[in-house]
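Homework help board

Subject: predicted structure for assignment chain

Our instructor gave us this sequence and asked us to write out the predicted structure in token form, then describe one feature. I got the tokens but I'm not sure how to describe them. Can anyone check?
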Amino acid sequence: MTQPPKPVQTPGGKPKDPDRININEEWELRFWAKELGLDEDQLKRAVQEVGVLTTELRKYKPPH
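My token output:
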């Protein structure tokens, strides 16, 4: 049985696809949470609310 391909990370530690977030990959969840100024739980909530596109997530404001 073959393993599914691993998500690709560039040498600089950034996701290869800068337009979409894969919150199922721990390293990508940490990267995007830091990049967007959210904690990991806030980012998961944001993805549930607005989807995986980084353009939409950059506009997201977490509830207070």
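Reply (TA_rk): Your tokens look well-formed. For the description, you could write something like this. Residues 14-64 form one domain. That's the kind of observation they're looking for.
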